[in-house]
Amino acid sequence: MILYTTVPQEQIYPADETEFSGQMMIEHQGIPLLVQQVNNKYRIIRIMSSDPAHYMDGTICPGEFITN
């Protein structure tokens, strides 16, 4: 089905709130990150920094696990 509309997809197909309930903002080595807690580790969801050098750091890629 193709839906031709200017309405954002999030308003047509709202996400389930429980999907985002475990996410939180933390700061790891001075870099703000959006993470999801898994046991005693944190899985990186998104880098929230505006510094391009932070995106080049291979240790804080989305999907990687860190301990804070």
Detailed description of the structure:
The structure is a single chain. The chain is mostly beta strands. It has a domain at 21-66. Helices cover 12% and strands 34% of the residues. It has helices spanning 9-12, 52-55; strands spanning 23-28, 31-38, 41-47, 65-66. Strands 1-2-3-4 form a 4-stranded antiparallel β-sheet, with no helix packed on it. β1 and β2 form a beta hairpin. The longest helix is centred in the N-terminal third of the chain and has 4 residues, at 9-12. The chain starts with 8 loop residues before the first helix and ends with a strand. 6% of the residues are buried. The mean pLDDT is 88.
Tag the structure with descriptive keywords.
mainly beta, 68 residues, single chain, 34% strand, 4-stranded antiparallel β-sheet
Q: Biggest sheet, open or closed, and with what strands and sense?
A: 4 strands, antiparallel
Q: Estimate the mean pLDDT confidence.
A: 88
Unreliable segments (pLDDT under 50, ≥5 consecutive)? Answer: none
Supply the helix-strand structural class.
mainly beta
The percentage of residues in β strands lies in 25-35%
Report, as a whole number of angstroms, the end-to-end distance.
Answer: 44 Å
Q: Can you count the beta strands?
A: 4
- The coarse overall form would be extended
| Rounded radius of gyration (Å) | 15 Å
**Residues in helix, %:** 10-25%
Strand order of the largest sheet: 1-2-3-4
Order of helices and strands: HEEEHE
Helical element count?
2
